[in-house]
Write a sequence for this structure.
């Protein structure tokens, strides 16, 4: 069985690798928030984007076959949500 520290290290590396591939996560999540807000005609912030991406992973976990990557991604999105929520300007439920 994999120990907890090893899992955290793998998720940290995954987030770092994705950042190199997809750019800064703050900018990426804000870009998604802007697009979703326009599409849904309702304001969504970047923390909510991460939360909704967590829900996507939870759905995949409950509906699909076991896939370790779904759990890693869920943890990763949760960590990104925490990072965004702890920023002073991202603690509001909706953007101004």
């Amino acid at each position: 069985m994999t120990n907890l520290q090893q899992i955290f290290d793998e998720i940290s590396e995954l987030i770092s690798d994705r950042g190199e591939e997809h750019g800064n996560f703050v900018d990426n999540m804000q870009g998604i928030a802007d697009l979703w807000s326009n599409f849904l005609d309702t304001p969504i912030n970047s923390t909510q984007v991460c939360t909704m991406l967590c829900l996507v992973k939870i759905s995949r976990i409950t509906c699909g076959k076991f896939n370790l990557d779904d759990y890693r991604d869920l943890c990763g999105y949760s960590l990104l949500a925490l990072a965004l929520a702890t920023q002073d300007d991202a603690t509001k439920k909706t953007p101004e």
Q: What stands out?
A: The chain is about 75% helix and 0% strand.
